[in-house]
Amino acid sequence: MELISALKFLKLHQVPEAWVDEVWNSEFTERKPLDNTIEEQLAASGDEAFRDLYECLLTYTGDRQSVSRVVASQNIWVILVENRVSVKSLVAVLSFFVLTGKDKVADTQQRVSSLHAASLYLLLLGIPGSIANKVFHEVLLDTCSDLSSHCWPHDSGKKRKRDGLKTSQTEGKRSKPQQKGTPDIEVDEEEELYFSGVDLLKIRDAVFLLVQTIIRLLQTFPLKDRPQSAINCTQIFSKLLYFEPVLGHLNFAAVQDITKLRSVPEMAFYGLQLLCSPKHGNQRESLQRVFHCLLYVILMMNKGNRGKPSLLILSQAILSTRDQAIHFVCHLVDELKQLALPFLHILLQHICFQMVEKSEFRIHGAQAVGMLTSEMTSTDYAGFIKWLFNLSRHSKMVCRLFSMDVVMVLLEQPERRPGECKDPDLACFLPHKFLIQSMLFAQQMDESPTVQGHALSCLAQCLELPSLNVTRAVHNLFSATGTQTLLDGETTEGIVTSQQTQKTYHSLPFRTLDISSTQSFGCDARENTTLLLQRLKDSKTNVRKSALQALVSLLKHAVIPMSWENLAMLSERCRDPAVSVRKKALQCMGDLLVAKPECSMVQKAWLQGVMPALADSENSVQDKALEALDQLVLSQVKPYSTSCHLDISKKLTWDLLCLLCHKCQNLSPYFSRAFTIWSKQDKFTSTFITNLISHTKADHAEGAWLFLSKAVVSSPRLPCGKILEAWDNMVSSKDANVTTCCHILSVIGNIAAYLNDDTKDRIVEDLMSWLKTFNLALEVISAAVETLYHLSRSDDIKQTQAFLNRHGSELVSLCEGYLTSVIMNEKGAQNLNEELMVKHLHTLGVVSLHCPAEVGKRTVLLVESLLTVHSDKLAECPEELPALLSLSQFKENSLPCRVKAHAVITLGKLCLQHEELVQKYLPVFARELEVGTEVAVRNNLVVIMCDLCVRYTTIVDHYIPNISACLRDNEAVIREQTLIMLTNLLQEDFVKWKGSLFFRFMVVLVDPVPVIASLCEYCLLHLLLKKNPEMFSQHFIECIFFFNSYTKHKSYNLFPQSESEKLQFSLKGVQYREKRFQIYRFLLEHFTDAQRFQITNKISQTVLACFVDEELPLDADGAVMLSETFNILSLKEMKLQAISAPPGIMAGGETEEENMATMAKAALQAAQKKVVSQVQKKAFIENTVPLIISLKILLEQKRSPALRDLMTYLQVTMQDYRNEVREFFSGDEQLMAEVEFALRTAEKEREMEQQMDTCTLTGDGKTPTAQVSVQDYPIRCRPLLPVSFATPQPPPPNYLSLRLSQTVRCTNRSRKEEHVKLITLEGTVIPQGGVNDRAISTPKGGSVNLTFDEGVSAIFSDQGTIVARFTNNTNRIVKTASRINGARLSILMRSTSSQEPSPPFLWPVRSGQGGRCPSCATK
C-alpha cells in the first residue's frame, strides 16, 4: 500500500477523464490547463513527495531487490487496477508536470518538479509490463529524455552561442530585427529570471536523477525497434557531455555501477556505451550514430539540427570534454575491435575533412588524430596514411594545412616497421620518410602561400624531434640524389573528387570520404636546396618567414653546408621590405649564432644582418637589433684577469668585436649608432668602463679598444692612467696593430679635454715625431692628425688655429720637400718609392684641411705635376702658379697609377679650401672624366667633383652632365660609384632633375650588370621617388622621345647634348626594344591610377595629335615613334588598376579570417571600377577615338607599318568595351567592322589556347546533381612573383619556357597509351547506383558497407561524365582551330591526335613515375 499512498499527491482521482483524454489525444505536444484548484494542489507538491514515489517505484524495477521481489514487481499493474488507479491518468498528470517545467518562464520549483516527473515516467516505463499497460508513448519518452536541456538555465549556453566563433559564412549575415506583435515577451522574461546557487544545485540534482533514470531504462528497456528514440538518446547524451566538469580521469574499462557514477558527463558516456549494445539495435548503426555525435565533440563544434556547425570558445572545460571523448572512442575500439575499426576510419576522415583553418583548432584536431591512430593496427594505419596523403592534395586549403599538422603529430610517435603491415602495397606508407618527403616537403610546391609557409615551418620543426629516423629523412632530402627533378615551374596534377564548397551549407554525410590523387614526386638534393632558397625571395611575406625558419634549422643541424652563400641569404633578409620578415630574420640569425657560436662565418653573417638593422626605418626593428646586440655584446663585458677562463658566450662577444675591427670595418658607423642609444640609457657606468679597460691587455685587446673608442664619446671620464700607459706602449712598439692604433688615438682625442698641459705637450710631441717618419699606415695618419686637432682645441679659436698652423706647416714643408726631390730630380721617377710617395700625398691632403693657409701655390703645382709632364714650369716659375692649364694637360707619365689616384684625391682636398682652385681645375677634372684611361683616377675624380658640389654647388652644377655621363661608363665600378654619389646629391637637393639627368638614370635600370641595375631600382624607389612622387609621371612622355633619339618635337628631347652623349645614352633601334620597354614597364608599375589616366590623355594630346595635325612628319622615324606609342598604350601596366585588378574574392591562399575583409574590399573595388570605367570611357570617346580614326585614315594613305600597331592597340583597349564598339566607332563603319572582327578572332584564339593549356573537364550543359568536380592539382610550383626587395635580387626564372618544354616532351605518346588513359579514367568513376552498394572509397569486394541515411555523399560522380566532357571539349577545340590559320591548325591537330596527352591529373599512376606522364618518366 506504500505505492498507493505515495501516489496521493498526484490527485489522480480528481483529474477529469475528459482532460486525460484530451492530453492523450494531443500526443503530449502541448500543456492542457487543469482546474485551478487541482493545479494549485499539484503545484504545492514538494520534492519529498516525488522522491518517495520514486523510491517506491524503484522497488518494482528489480534493481535493488531479490529475485522474489522481481517476481512480485510484475503485480504493480494489478495493484494499480485493484486501487482503481488509472495508468492513463497517471501518465497524463506526469506529462502535465513535464510540460510545465519545459516552459521557458518556469521557476525553480516547476523545473525541479518537471525533472522528477520525467524521472518517474521513465522509471515506470522500465518496469516489466509497461508496454502492455500502454505506458509507453514515443513523444513523451523523447520529451522526458531531453528535458534536461529545457530545465537547466541556458544563460551560459546562450552566451556561448552569441559570443562563439562563427564561420566566414555566418559572420557576414545581419540578424533580422524582431517584428512587432511577435511573442518576444517570454524571451525577455526568461532573461530576467534569476537562479541562485541553491536553485541551480536543486535543478542539477534533479537532472542527475533524470539521467540516472535514463540509464536504468536503457539497461532494461530495449530500443531495438525504436531507432528514432535511440537517435534522440544519442544526441541527448552527447549534449550532456558538456553539462558539468569532471574531476579526475574517467575509467571506461571498469564495470559500470550507476550508483557509483558521480557526474552527469560520466553517466552520459556510460549511456553512449549502452546504446552500442545489440539490444538497442544494429551495433554498426549504433556505432555510426555515437561516432558521428562524438565527431563534433572532438572538433569542438556546436552542431545544431541544421546549418553549418559553429565553433565553440576554447576553454579548459571544452578541452577536457574533448579529451574524454577521444579516450571513450579508444575504449570502444578496444572493446569492439574489428566492428569499430571501420567507423574509426570514418571518424578520422571526417575530423580531417571538416577541420577549420584556425590554428588552435587544427593543433588540437591533429593531436586527436594522433591519439586515435594509436589504436590502429599497422595495416589500418597505413591505409589511413594513404588516405591522408590524398587529402594533402585536396583543393581545400585547410585540408592541405591540416594534413601537415597531423603528420607532425604522427612523427612524434614510434615509427612502425613495414614488416608489420599485412598488405605489401601499403607498407610504403609506414616509414616516417614518406611522411616527411611526400607530405611535408612536397607541400612547399603548393599554389597557396599559406600552405607553402606552413610546410616550411613544419620542416624546420622536424629536425627538433628526437627521432633519428625523422632526422635521417630530412637529411636525405638535401643530401641524397633522386632520379626525378622538379624545379622552376614543373607541376604535377591530380584528380580531386569533391563537391565545391557552396555558400549554402549542406551537411556532409558521416561516411567514408573518397579523395583520390596521383603519387608524389621527387626532387634531388641540389634542387631541393635551390627551391628552399627561392622561397626566401618569395613575393609572400609568410613564405619568406617560414623559409627563414627552415633554412636556419637545416643549417643548425648541418643538413646543408654552412656556406657563405647560404648565410648571406639569411643576413640579406634582415633588409627585407616587410617588417615582420626583418624581425624574423633577426631572430633566426640570433638562433643560428647561439647554436654555432664558434663559426666565424656565422658571426660575420650575424653582424652583416644585425648592424644595418640599427639604422632601420622601423623603430621596432631597431629595438630588436639593439636588444640582440645588448645580449651578445654589451651584457657580456665582465672584469678580466689572466687567470679567468672565457666561456663560450664571452668568447663570442670578443670574436664579434674583433671581426668589427678587421673583416667588418664597414659596419662601424652602425655600431656607433648603438652607442648613441645606449648612452641615453646610461649603460656606460664607471664600473662598466673599468671592466672594459681590463680587457685592453688581453689577447682580444683590439676589440676592447674598439668598444672603448665608441663608449668614450658618451662617458669621457675614464681612468686616464691606463689609457696613457697604453699610448706609451703603442708609441714604443714597432709592430703596433693599425686598427688598435686608430682606436687608441680616438680615445686620446676624446679625453684630451681632461688632460693637463704637460701630458698634452708630450702626446703632441709623440704624434709629430710619429708623423714625420711617414712610416704610418694611411688610416693611422688620418687618425693622428684628427687627434692632433682634438689636442689643440680650446675656447680661443685663434689660438687653436695658430697651434694647427704651427704644427701643420712642419708637415706641409716636409711633404713639399719630398715632392720637390722626386719631381725636380731627373731620375726621381725611376727611383720612386711608391708607398712613401702615397703617404706624403695623403699626409699633405689631410693636413691641408686643417691649415689651408700653410699650403702655398708651389705645393699645389707640385701635386698637379704628378698628373702632368709639365715639370719644366716649376723651374721657370718656382713661386707662382702658371696660367690656367689646358684641358688636355692630364697626360700619360711614368708615375704609377696608384700615385696618380692619390694625387687626384689630394688635389681635390686642396680645392675644397680654395675656390679659385675649384674654378681652375674643374674643367681639367671634367675633361679627364671624358678622355682618361686609368680607372682609379677617374673613379676618384667622380668622388671629388661630387664632394665639391656640396660646398660649391653653383660652380659644379654646370658639370653635372659630365658626371652623369659616367653612368654609361665602360667600367662597372665607375658606373656604380657615380650612381651612389648622384643619388646622395639628389637626396640633399644639391642637384636637381634638370636636363637629361633623369633619363640617364633610367638607362642604368637596364645596366648589363644586374647588381647595378638592382641598386638603381632601389635608389629610385626607396630614396628618390619618396621625395618626389610625381617624378616618374612628369618625365614619362619625354622618355619615349629621349630613348628613341627623336628630336623633331617642339617640346621634348631638346637638351643640349654632344653627339657622343646622345649616342652613349640612346636606346634607339629594334635591338634595344626590350630594354626600352623594360624601363616603360618599371615606370608604369609605380604610377597611381590618376597618373595613368593623366598620362594616357597627355599622350593622345601631345603625341598622337601632333601626327594628326602633321606637326610631326610621318616619315620613317615618325612611324617608329607612332608604333612605340601604340605599343606603350597597349601595355597591361597602362591599364587602371581599379579596372584591371581581379575582384577581391577569396583566393586559395586566403585564410578564413581574411574572408570578410576580402569581401568588403571586393565590394569597394566593384563600385570603384564602375565609376572609373565610366570616366575612362568618356575620356576615351572624347579625346582618343577621333584621333584614332584620323590616324587610321592617314596611315592607310601613307601605307605606314604603324597601322598594324594601331589595330593591335585598339584590339587590346576594346577588350573592356566589347559590347560598345559600335558606340565608339559609329563615325567609321569600316573601322568598327575591323575592330569587331579582330576581337572575335582574338577571343577564339584565347579560348583555344586556354583549352589546350588546361583541358578543363567542365561541360556546357546541365549536369546531374551528383557530379564530379575536377579541380587543378593544388601542389604545383606557384611562380615567384616579383617583389620589390630592398636588396638586389636575381631575375626570376622563366617558368613559361620550362612549361612549354615539358609540354613538348609530353606530346610523343602512342595510341596505346591514350587507350590505357581512357580505360583508367572510366575505372575511377562510380556508377550512379554504385553508392547504394558500397561506401565511396571502400574497395570493390570489401566487407564494409557504410551508408548513414543522410543522402548521397558530397564526394560522388556519375559514370561517363568525364569521358563525355573530355570528348566534347576536344571536338570544340578542333572546331575552333579550323577558323585559325593553317600553321596553328597543324600544330593543334598534332596535339589533339592520338599523341596528345590527357591533362596531367588523368595520367595513369605507375610505380616509379611519381605522378609524371609516362613519356616523361621513361627519360
Set out the fold topology.
Elements: H1 2-6, H2 17-25, H3 36-43, H4 47-58, H5 67-73, H6 76-82, H7 87-102, H8 108-125, H9 138-145, H10 148-151, H11 155-163, H12 168-171, H13 185-192, H14 197-220, H15 227-240, H16 264-275, H17 283-299, E1 301-302, E2 310-311, H18 316-336, H19 341-353, H20 359-373, H21 378-391, H22 397-411, H23 432-439, H24 449-462, H25 468-479, H26 525-535, H27 541-556, H28 564-572, H29 579-595, H30 600-613, H31 619-632, H32 648-661, H33 668-680, H34 686-693, H35 701-711, H36 720-732, H37 738-750, H38 757-772, H39 778-792, H40 797-823, H41 834-850, H42 857-865, H43 872-876, H44 897-912, H45 915-931, H46 935-951, H47 953-956, H48 960-964, H49 972-987, H50 997-1003, H51 1010-1024, H52 1031-1043, H53 1059-1065, H54 1073-1085, H55 1089-1108, H56 1116-1129, H57 1137-1140, H58 1155-1198, H59 1202-1213, H60 1221-1224, H61 1229-1254, H62 1295-1305, H63 1311-1323, H64 1361-1377, H65 1382-1392, H66 1414-1417
Antiparallel strand pairs: 1-2
Helix pairs in contact: 2-7, 4-8, 7-8, 8-9, 8-14, 9-15, 14-16, 15-16, 15-17, 17-18, 17-19, 19-20, 19-21, 20-22, 22-23, 22-24, 23-25, 24-27, 25-26, 27-29, 28-30, 29-30, 29-31, 30-32, 32-35, 35-37, 36-37, 37-39, 38-39, 39-41, 40-41, 40-42, 41-44, 44-45, 44-46, 45-46, 46-49, 49-51, 52-54, 55-56, ...
